[in-house]
C-alpha cells in the first residue's frame, strides 16, 4: 500500500475532514515540477505567438483575424490588460461595439493607469450614443494624460 500523508483540513466549511494524499518521493516531485514548468512555458510561448500574430494582422488591417487570435490569447492569459486592450481595438474596428466595451472595461480593471484604454472606451461609448459614459471615460483618461490633444478635442465636442 502506498504511503499517504494525512492532512486535517482547516477550511471553515471543511473543519475536521481528514484527507489522505499519496506521499511523493523527491524524484517524482521534481519530475512533476519540471512537467509543470514545461507546460507553463508552452502556454507563455503560445500566448506570445498569438500576440505577435495578432499585431501583424492588425498592422495589415485584418482585424477579424486579430480578434480571433486575441480571443484565444485572453483565454490563455486573462489577466493581461494589454491583450484585452488590443481585443477592444480590433472589435471596435469591426464595429462590434458591445464586445469592444467589454474588452476595454476588462483592460481598465487590469491596468487602470493606461489612459489609452479610457480614450478608446470613450470613443466606443460615443459611437454607441452614450455621451455620459463617453465623457466620463475621456475625463478619466485626461486625468492620467492631461495634454492628449485628440482626447481634449473629443472631450470638448461631447
The main sheet comes to: 2 strands, antiparallel
Approximate strand percentage: 5-15%
CATH class of one domain: Mainly Alpha
Say how many strands there are: 2
Overall shape: it is: globular
Mean pLDDT: 82
**Could you say which structural class the secondary elements and strand pairing correspond to?**
mainly alpha
The CATH homologous superfamily of one domain is termed: Tetratricopeptide repeat domain
Kindly identify the CATH topology of one domain. Answer: Serine Threonine Protein Phosphatase 5, Tetratricopeptide repeat
Count up the helices: 7
Low-confidence stretches: 1-25
Supply Rg: 23 Å
Q: Strand order across the biggest sheet?
A: 1-2
Q: Work out the helicity level.
A: over 70%
CATH architectural category of one domain? Alpha Horseshoe
- The helix-strand sequence is EEHHHHHHH
Terminal Cα separation, in Å?
73 Å
Q: Your description of this structure?
A:
The structure is a single chain. Residues 1-25 have low confidence and may be disordered. This protein has a domain at 48-157: Serine Threonine Protein Phosphatase 5, Tetratricopeptide repeat (Alpha Horseshoe). It has helices spanning 26-59, 63-76, 81-93, 97-110, 115-128, 131-144, 149-157; strands at 4-8, 18-22. The longest helix is centred in the N-terminal third of the chain and has 34 residues, at 26-59. With 158 residues, it is mostly helical. It is built from seven helices and two strands.
Layout of helices and strands:
Elements: E1 4-8, E2 18-22, H1 26-59, H2 63-76, H3 81-93, H4 97-110, H5 115-128, H6 131-144, H7 149-157
Antiparallel strand pairs: 1-2
Helix pairs in contact: 1-2, 2-3, 3-4, 4-5, 5-6, 6-7
Amino acid at each position: 500500500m502506498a504511503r499517504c500523508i494525512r492532512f486535517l483540513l482547516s477550511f471553515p466549511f471543511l473543519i475536521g475532514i481528514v484527507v489522505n494524499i499519496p506521499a511523493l518521493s523527491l524524484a517524482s516531485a521534481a519530475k512533476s515540477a519540471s512537467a509543470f514548468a514545461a507546460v507553463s512555458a508552452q502556454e507563455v510561448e503560445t500566448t506570445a505567438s498569438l500576440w505577435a500574430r495578432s499585431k501583424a494582422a492588425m498592422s495589415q488591417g485584418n482585424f477579424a483575424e486579430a480578434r480571433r487570435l486575441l480571443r484565444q490569447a485572453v483565454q490563455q492569459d486573462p489577466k493581461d490588460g494589454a491583450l484585452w486592450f488590443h481585443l477592444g481595438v480590433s472589435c471596435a474596428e469591426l464595429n462590434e461595439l458591445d464586445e469592444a466595451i467589454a474588452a476595454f472595461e476588462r483592460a481598465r480593471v487590469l491596468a487602470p493607469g493606461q489612459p489609452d484604454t479610457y480614450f478608446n472606451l470613450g470613443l466606443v461609448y460615443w459611437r454607441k450614443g452614450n455621451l455620459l459614459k463617453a465623457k466620463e471615460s475621456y475625463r478619466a483618461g485626461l486625468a492620467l494624460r492631461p495634454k492628449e490633444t485628440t482626447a481634449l478635442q473629443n472631450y470638448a465636442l461631447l
